[in-house]
Amino acid sequence: MRPLLLSLTLLGLTSACNHAIVVHPPADRTAREARALEAVQRLGQPGDWLVIRGYHATDNLVSAATNAPFSHVAVLDPDKGQVIEAEGKGLHTTPLPEFMKKAHRLILMRPQWATGPDRQLAAVEKARGYVGRGYDFSGLVGINVPDRFYCSELAVAIYAPHATRKDHLPPVLPPADMHFWATILWDSGPVTIP
């Protein structure tokens, strides 16, 4: 696994990046997190996607390897004040305020298949049913491993019964491409560091 990660890191470092490979918290981090939390609590519904650019080394790797400004996706469960996410430690839940602390930038999206409360609640229950499964490290390079999930694989898998062939879903979506299958409800905006 280490040679793959090293190769991906080198690929990311040598590609023509149009964004920072490593991001650092801005001076107004606490205020940005509070605004994001308020917006997600006000606008978010079950099964919505939270697409972020995070601070963790893995976020840097994903962003560099995909040459994209976003690195992670989670599924919102506002009724429990949590997200369901797939990370290196596997699929798990995270309290929403804690998840906000990981986000350098956050976009709240409503998947195109989230067309009603029943479907959205079923998607969240499906995501919760996957908690405890392993993380799909190969998702970073677009390979889908059965019974494991990359972050965006989880977000799409919970709506898979509603996707049609015309949706043209690839096996694995990079976090930066989630907006092609969703409506953007709120964007914290890019962070400018003086």
Description:
- The model is unreliable at 1-17 (pLDDT under 50).
- The radius of gyration is 16 Å and the shape is globular.
- A hairpin with a 2-residue loop joins strand 3 (82-87) and strand 4 (90-95).
- The strands form 2 sheets. A 6-stranded antiparallel sheet has the order 4-3-2-1-5-8, sandwiched between helices. Strands 6-7 form a two-stranded parallel sheet.
- Helix 1 crosses helix 3.
- The protein has 6 helices and 8 strands.
- It is α+β, with helices and mostly antiparallel strands.
- It has a single domain, classed as Alpha-Beta Complex (endopeptidase fold (from Nostoc punctiforme)).
CATH architecture: Alpha-Beta Complex
Strand content: 15-25%
Shape: globular
The CATH class is identified as Alpha Beta
- Total strand count, please? 8
- Write down the overall mean pLDDT: 87
The parts where pLDDT drops under 50 for at least 5 residues are 1-17
Q: Assembly state here?
A: single chain
Give the N-terminus to C-terminus distance in angstroms: 38 Å
What is the fourth-level CATH superfamily?
endopeptidase domain like (from Nostoc punctiforme)
Strand order of the largest sheet: 4-3-2-1-5-8
Output the CATH topology: endopeptidase fold (from Nostoc punctiforme)
The radius of gyration over CA amounts to: 16 Å
* Contiguous helical run count: 6
